[in-house]
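Recap from last week: sequence in, structure out.
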Amino acid sequence: MDLVTVDIGGTHARFAIASVAADGAIALSEPVTLHTQDHASFQTAWEEFRARQGGTLPDAVAMAIAGPVGGEIIRFTNNPWIIRPALVREKLGVARYTIVNDFAAVAHAVARSPEEQFLRLAGPDTPLPPQGTLSVLGPGTGLGVAHLWRDGKGSYRVQATEGGHVDFAPLDTIDDAILARLRKRHTRVSTERVVSGPAIVDIYETLAAIEGRAVPETSDIDIWTRGTGGEDSLAAAAVDRFCLALGAVAGDIALAQGAAGVVIAGGLGYRIRETLLASGFEGRFCAKGRFAALMASLPVKLIVHPQPGLFGAAAAFVSEHRGASA
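Predicted structure tokens:
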């Protein structure tokens, strides 16, 4: 059977056609990426994708959404679109649908991806354990967090969370300065304010203020480009600081979830993978006091599947509708 699979984040909405074989194997067509700010609603983005596909689409859809997916109205965390699940069949012209949190979709992708789709970031260079809890998190426009539990016999369960909105915990004086800067604008500072793509601007400007530098207003994309390209030492220091914060947060999530392994996901993590490997990510991940030895024993991987959200949304659809006729 074929279905439309959609991964909607704060900045982009990605669409593809997923073909599901009789044995459950999933193959994706070439994705189409649309900017959320270019479309008034998900409906108009859907209509554009449909037009690009010649005017017709399969009658099933799987949607991965950046935000909570319960309730009568789904609101996105980082874009103004809304979706009313009760109207999905009518508005999209489909017979069946699945809606999951975007990082729940990524967790489905983690559960179904082969070992070669993972790159070691920290811990032992061993496969992810087939049994126990795997924490899944990743920075993008926000910070997504989920986890999955595997029974060691091939079955698994996924749990979406809003773990990116737990409180940010500073660990040194530079973290203190970042927190102080953010507190001027936010009553409560969550980890997402520090560990996300746009957060690099506040990190960069905090480091500039510490050094007494006056820096021109700039975009997060520009800082990431200059920081990973090596032509700007201050931007590079901001990227290094981001990697430290990501390591600390990943370690906190692993402790909270009782993880047997951790997977970092998201397009940003993949783009800066070489920087992550050379950074203090692993040190911060393991720096958990009496639990340092435990943290060092956990395999920490980066999923390198090119479209884990699209693949995972389709996998979630297969899991939900398993046994239904195509």
